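Our collaborator T.R. sent over the components below with a one-line note: 'Predict the complex.' Nothing else. No constraints on interfaces, no templates requested, no preferences about which chain binds where. So this is a plain run: every listed entity goes in together, and whatever single assembly comes back becomes the starting point for the next discussion.
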Amino acid sequence: MSTQEITPTRSVLLETKKKIKLSQSGYKIMKMKRDGLIIEFFEIMEKAKEMRDRVVADYLNAMEKIHIASAVEGAIAVKSAAYALKGDPQVCLSCKSIMGMTVPKVDAECGCTPILDRGYGVISTSAYIEEAAKAFEKLLETMVLAAEVETTMKRLLDEIEKTKRRVNAPEFKVIPELQEAEAFIEFRLEEMERENTIRLKHLKRKAEAAQ
Amino acid sequence: MDIAVIGNEDFVLGFRLAGVRRVFTTTEENYEPTILKAMEDESIGVLAADSSDLKFLKPHVRQKVMDSIQPVVVPIGRDESDLREKVKRAIGVDLYKTEDD
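Returned assembly:
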């Protein structure tokens, strides 16, 4: 707001003072929210790092198992076992709130399927395929857990960025501008008062001279 | 909701063994349209993707994929550059930095 747009009156001064008070309380609340989100983020980050390491470890293990199965049984046997499988792992997506921010909650309905329920013949396949299937089931479980943690972390980071902007705007732009406007109005009102006093003195002198 | 997998034949085969039925087999050329199609499917809750395949996507598509909440896209592999970059931008410090970096 430039000083030329400000009307230096008492009502505007009172309004500006009210705005400053409101902006300062809003700024404090947003600052507290930002700090809260950052604390929450640090808690989640440790979990996310751990989950990522687990996903990588499970993935490498699963890939190793499937490569062994392919080498021993042949790629076609592994493929035919994979295509013969029954069951479809499901997830349930719901929402939960962290400091007013909605984050997804992922509940997995997948687990270890017993060998007889898998859908392929136990005699026609080997333990290598079974081990690979188990390793991938484990990876799937870890992946679902990682999905929840990583998405929460992404949402938290987005919210931190937004809140940071909301904290910076009043801190560096809104409040200083309002304070500048307040100072300008106070200065102008004092100046007008001084002018008025001088004018009255001048009139008084003139009236005394006329008498 | 279903779990889906997107990637090359080798990558998706293991997930088929774990019972995943929603499988999108792709090549480098059709990776982007396939992942976008998979993301439009409302019955998919979690989409697993090979993190090394994500480099085939244009930057804005990659951003969209990584920020997606439904489905949640989980990159599988060692590449954690997206999350690292996001942390750096929001917090201002590279918290993923290790002694080796």
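Summary for T.R.: The radius of gyration of chain A is 35 Å.
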